[in-house]
Design goal:
9 strands; Sulfatase; alpha/beta; arylsulfatase activity; 372 residues; globular
Amino acid sequence: MNKPENVIVFFIDGLHWKAPARLNMPVFNSLIKEGTYIEQSHMIMPHHPTVGEYGRIHSSSFPNPVLQEGTLFIKRGNKMLQDIFPSNQTTAFIVNTKAYTSVSNGFTINIHNPGITDEQVVKQSIELLHEYDVRYFRIHLQTPGNEGRFLSYTTPDKSYYRNIWGEGSPYVEAVENADMLLGVLTDDLKRTGKWESTLLIVTSDHGQSEKGWHPMVDKDSVITPMLFAGPSIAKGRRLSYFEHTDLTPTIAGLMGLEQPNKDGGAGMFIKEVMETIDTPAFQHPAYIKTINQQLNDFNALRARVMIAGETDSYYSSLISYLENELLTPEPFYHQDRFLEWYKAGNTAHLIEANNKILEQMRGELSKPGNND
């Protein structure tokens, strides 16, 4: 295997999975032909609690620690992707927000400056690449995600009201600008002779609702494009499925390093991105897609049970029973218990435990007399 010497993960924040096909993104689309493309990579719902234990520890939404650690089981003692590189090698993280400080520990160079533009992020990234031999570089452009969030609460007089694709959409402008900046970076890598030895991955930490931002129940919030290009990567290949938990193990495998975490929630080294691996037999258990659907189902069913409880106190008790594990040996592993998911032991069992509770809730709601 022609092992890459360096890896750059280029994030376009809040990138909608349809953007490469709908928008003017010539650089991204040219790289699709040069590498391996996944149109929809799945990440865990981008819930962002700001209170409780998660909010106390983490400054960003669920997908970010999951991506950096390569596992759904976020717990003390986990390593992150930057931790697997030898201490004498330079790693760097540059982004124009302070939202990701909790996943930045261990990088040699950290620049988290909300006062700089996407253009300045790329300019400073190139300067660092000229000055240092950066083995692993996370470059994150925050503006597209910010514009998506701002767009979500615009007023009806705007042509892009509740529509990220609308005429004059600042989200569209930011994404197309990010594509141009991706071209600035790749041009510099080619000009300085680093392109042939660099593994480049382009993706986002979460998706984007067509109404704007990334609400946790919107199906477009939990999918985003994923693109691999560089040494050993298959050219012109498309894979049907990928999960963000797979990114860290795949980078580790391609770089000849050990993945940081191998617990029951860890993703896999997807070898099918490599030119030496055939893809006809490629199958993925699709754990994250399943869990996201379970979370949406649970939240909807819980709301129905609570409404039923307004006229029948039995359903009020049912909620308490489920929350306190009185009817089942395990709780439903929902978003408010995210930091307890590791107690399931492995992802398959977590899904199994969740299914049992969903079946029970559906059964209770289908009983005669419940007219919710």
